[in-house]
Amino acid sequence: MTDEMEDLKRRLVLGRKSVGRGVYDEAAKSELVALCRQPGASVSRLARECGVDANQVSRWLREHGVGGRAHKTNSVVTPAFVAVAEQPSSLVKARSGEDTVAVMDVQARLPNGVAIDLRGVELRIVGEVIEVLERLRCSASTKS
Questions:
Q1: Measured distance CA(27)–CA(20) in Å, rounded
Q2: What CA–CA distances, in Å, run from 113 to 88, 121, 127, 133, 143?
Q3: pTM exceeds 0.85 for this model
Q4: I need a surface site. Which of 36, 60, 138, 143 has the fewest CB within 10 A?
């Protein structure tokens, strides 16, 4: 264990309450959370080195808006939608009475694996369709 970790461990735990719960220094907690946020850092290893339960450190991470036990430094958060280059061949002109209306096909795959394929969506409402798809409640746990 490095001298920095020894110093952090010494400053972190101020004492124990009568029920056995720890009393922790706020500045030292923030330092430990910052260490846990470093790329490649192991929350459980850092907690063990500081003499604190890993679940407690995970709670501090959540309180600092980081995540907690599920926090992985090498994971990549993907947005719900990604930019797609519009291909001129995907646009089709359809006759609507006397006016020509530009339409396109819209395809989306939801986190639970459901694929949505909409054909002939008018360009003027494609943005609205995407906003509706974005608001759909969809749990990835239902993925089959």
A1: 21
A2: 28, 22, 22, 14, 6
A3: no
A4: 143
